[in-house]
Give the backbone structure.
Amino acid sequence: MAISEHYDVLIVGRTVAGLMAATLLAKRRLRVRVLDVGFSPEPDLPVFGLETTPLLHPLLDEMGLVHDVRTRIFGPPTAVNIALSDRRFAFPPDARKRAQILGEVFPDEQDPLLELFSFIERFGPKMDSMLDGELDFSADGFRATRGLQRLAEESGLDDLVGQTRSWSENQIISDFVKALLAVSGRLDGGPDYMTPAAIRSLWHLCFGIPRIRDGRRGLEDLLAQKLLTSGGTIEEHRIADQFDIRRKRIKSIQTTDGAVFGGDAVIVSGGMNTLNMLAGEVIGAVETATLNRVAIPAYERPQPFLDPCGWIPRLGHAPVLARPQDGTVALLSVDTGSLPIEQLVPATNIARSEAIESPWSGPAQLDTFGFCSSALRSPLKNTLLIGESMMPGLGIEGACLTAYQAAEAVTASKASRWPFGGKL
């Protein structure tokens, strides 16, 4: 294929992480082009973690967006809504109000719940030094593994890494934690035991969901405007369709209308749908669950709760994660089989759509702390994987960290004096 235009970096996927990486690189005077894809590359989850992400403000400062983002936040953070099989309630960001509600909703479990969240609020900040951009989360290599282990020992996290400390012996508390993790983006429910990544997710949620004007789309539009004024380019109408892979490198990307773009480096903004565009033998198999979109009658939905909402109905003894989305309810089974929806909801007028693979990966743990759902460094030599799907459940923190690491790696490769060009 004849290449129409060549760039320093091609970004595949118009997401928060993709636009953030593109803007950083454009501000560093690299030629950048963003190619959209014909589907949502990542789950449409609420934006959270703005108050608790150490890397966010340095990135916004470099991009010149500190004031712009601040003016788009209005009102106090919203509460997270939880619907268990036997009770429904709000999980507010105010600690006193939260303690009061938990005490009223769980009178028999009040003390262990308060102890659990006290532990979470003590534990969460310990990971700031790991998630401030100084650590390379390549998760591939002996030095990276040893570095993570040393950090675990220094920060007091080593008692959780690789351990199986249960959230609670009480099934009600365990379901409650899983509902919160579902809101945070871990739609596989997360592990039955404590991990640093899951605790960090819960710590973010303790500060509430920021109310951003126009939501995630508004944040993406803000980043897109800054990218364009910084000299970057966004392909508004052409859709990335095919990768030309040669010698373990992406040589070019063809769009649906036949245009071909080349790039020294390629950044793929995560999500299983986007990764599936690459050859299966390149990325490898990724465990997924079955996602069913079901139109459940209004009187069976968790009312008056709106998204963000974690809802766990039960099918026998197995919990099934659910969230309202666009007038329907998305149900996620934790196995690869299809859900007998009729047993879940005692109603007859269920409009069930065809089951599709979930874009959220299974509980694969590829690094010491279990942050990454897939390797951040692709097996392809000039390709990096970024996005919240790569670091699920960390909210905007996952987007910031992966975008920053990718921008740093590309910047370093372009500055390399290697005689045959920069190497990722």
Remarks:
- Residues 59 and 352 are 43 Å apart (CA to CA).
- Residues 360-364 have pLDDT under 50 and may be disordered.
